[in-house]
Amino acid sequence: GAGATTRIAARLAAPGHAVGVDISAPLLERARASTAAEGVANAAYECADAQVHPFPADAYDVVVSRGGVMFFEDHAAAFRNLARALRPGGRLAFVCPQPPGPHSPEARTLALFARLVDEEPGAEAVAARTAMASLSDPDRVREVLAGYEEVTVEPVTVEAVWGRDVPDAVEFLLSRYPGGALPASRLAELEAALRPYATDRGVRMRAGVWLVTAVRP
Ligand SMILES: C[S@@+](CC[C@H](N)C(=O)[O-])C[C@H]1O[C@@H](n2cnc3c(N)ncnc32)[C@H](O)[C@@H]1O
To answer: For atom 1 of ligand 1, which residue has the closest CA?
Structure first.
């Protein structure tokens, strides 16, 4: 992403260091700029596909991801690649979405967004939505982490920030679903659905995620 989790990791790891990986060059440009502006000297970034990138073997103590790994196309192979990068005894931790509760504000908003997007052409948007749910089943999580030990999958409820304000939250939603550009009338409908959750600390909705941890043998 734009490096928020990498900067947190770098601060916790000092005097060690953190490497942020993303396939999006524009996001990494933002990440590098924020990291320099905040004076975090022990974080670096690599533009790479984490599923197949030839990370140095046995090189890292910890792999963390906040809402990234469910986008992998071949989860089992990707987690094997990340295990190779971890030293023996190294730890993996990530969060990914739980299936949204049927009546939660998040589920209602995402369902509305899905409906608006589905009414527009854009197979990529549908694929991205499928990816969001790809690790929502804990059994599936355990299956793709077959090479790891001590796998735990714990439910956590978080207050997710969708954006600084309503337009920012809409932009975030659209960016999560590439190809999901919407005409003005549909954008207005989405803005109206998000408005009740706008606070002076951003657009906030409670959401359920899985916190998954594992150890490389
Ligand atoms: C929802 S964002 C989360 C970003 C960040 N972890 C955060 O919490 O701010 C998901 C990110 O995963 C990246 N991504 C998706 N597939 C990837 C892959 N195979 N390798 C590296 N990054 C990937 C996307 O480009 C996107 O920036």
So the answer is: 67
- Pairing status of strand 198-199 against strand 202-215: antiparallel
Q: Is the CB of 95 under 6 A from ligand 1?
A: no
Asked if residue 72 has its Cβ within 6 Å of ligand 1, the reply is yes
DSSP string, 24-38: -HHHHHHHHHHHHHT
Going by CA atoms, what residue is nearest to atom 4 of ligand 1? 1
Domains along the sequence of the chain with CATH? 1-48 (no CATH), 60-215 (3.40.50.150)
The per-residue pLDDT for range 132-169, each reduced to its tens digit, is 789 999 999 999 999 999 999 999 988 889 899 999 99
CA of 30 to the centre of ligand 1 (A): 14
Question: Does 66 have pLDDT greater than 80?
Answer: yes
Detail the DSSP E strand segments found in 49-182: 60-66, 86-97, 149-163
pTM: 0.85
Cβ atoms of residues 3 and 36 within 8 Å: no
